[in-house]
## 1
Amino acid sequence: MDWANNNVCPAGQHPPLSGMGIALASVHHTLVSDNEVNGNATTVPSIAHGGIVIISTAFLGGANPTYNTVRDNRAHRNRPADIFWDGSGFGNKVVDNECSRAIPGHLGGATVTTNFGQSGRN
């Protein structure tokens, strides 16, 4: 079944949240594996959005994400990216995922497939 998270959680003690499929926000030692994450996007301001999102909440008094692994997932039609990492934290691994777009573009471990059926390491 395909679920798209395109609704908004309004701001309260945090900025507005919308359009994230799986969010690893300030988590530690978490495994995200073997998921299908499709069609997550938002048209409103949000702290982040995309299919699988790895972000810090240190600016809110939280922490940087550390020692997390994102592997063997399939993510497509998420905006702005299927896998997004803000580059914060350390010890995080992104390996053996299938997606159409990763941010940053040099994010290791994401096999990017095009509309033409070609694939390559991103």
Note: Residues 18-36+48-113 form one domain.
## 2
Amino acid sequence: MDVTSETFERDVVERSRELPVVVDFWAAWCGPCRTLGPVLEREAESRAGELALVKVDVDSNPELALRYQIQGIPAVKAFRDGEVVREFVGALAPAAVAEFLDELTGPTGAERLLDELGASGELPEVVAALGPRPAPVETPGDAHAAPVGAGATVRPLPVG
């Protein structure tokens, strides 16, 4: 689906609150864009319902290219919950594109950690406390802790 400056907010930002939206910033004159486009389309189609793929022509929508700091094309940005969460520039091999999309549609690092802890039976109180939505990891004096999986350091809790 082609997205323009007029439809970007609805078709990308708002829609990314329901499922990941992958934006391919491209131009008709760009050779690597013409190489990457079919790979992205094929890989996205194989994940239909798990993510949406949209295309932005940077020549027709220069304000979007400026807003998202596009300095080289093809540039691919993945949105979740209205924010860019992953990106790459250049034409990647099909396997790398597949891995990029799989990381968007699969469980987050925090969700994988919870699954591993739950399966191992370790720290059941932590698994129960965090449940399906991980909470920020906080330690005394650390009021701005990052969520687990977002670069935070996970420290074992005292048992007993």
Note: Residues 133-160 have pLDDT under 50 and may be disordered.
## 3
Amino acid sequence: MALGAFTSIYLAKAGLHPLLAIPAAGVLVSGIGLVFGLPSRRLKELYLLISTLAAQFFFDWFLRTEQMAWFTGGAYAKYVPPLNLEPLDLSYGYPLYVTVAVIATVHFLALANLSRSYIGRALKAVREET
């Protein structure tokens, strides 16, 4: 999650609108996850867990090194101004709460519909395959 957050901050500071920077960071980080995930695809049970934890610890260590201070801000971290959509000030309070609640509800409904679709049933079949 830290890699995606720092990537979205970096893209937003580079001039990309924050609402475009967040999904773009998700795509970039998915590619990095794919690099770590492809070698792990044949692992099962405990070994998959170990490889996942190793990737997490690697990125945690990597983002804390001095060479990555330009990206993460180092010990002082990165300052990010609050997300501001012109009619809404999402820096605090009720508008932020309502916005997060609406986004969470939309995602929940989308996942509920996905689980009932053909793709959702296929994902369940893959999960339950032993």
Note: The helical segments are 2-13, 18-40, 45-64, 69-72, 93-115, 118-128.
## 4
Amino acid sequence: MAEDEDDDLETVVAGAVTMLTLTIAFGLMFAGVPYFWVAFPVGFGGLLPMAVGAARLYRRRQETDSRPASEDDDALATLRERYAQGDLTDAEFERQVERLLETEDSATARQEVDRERERVDREQETE
């Protein structure tokens, strides 16, 4: 349903630019301007692609703004849970949070958390 609404936005933008281009071009033609034809390539070749591209950019930004950051929050929630259970010391927790904030994406962060969990588990087994 959201995709249909996005397509509707692009359709409305394209229709508005088309009507504007035709109105200006034919208005210039009826006014006797000899270079009225320039409105067609400017409108359809320049303005129309830019307007549709702007509508798509708007759609993409809306999608990224509305997308929940569950993966990033999940890694931090795992760290908090392990800290609350006593699996991590204060220093380990702080180091992991800093590492999590330094990572570029949630997949890398998840790998770091898993590696640290395995390291802590190995240390606890040797004790």
Note: The chain has two domains: 2-66, 70-126.
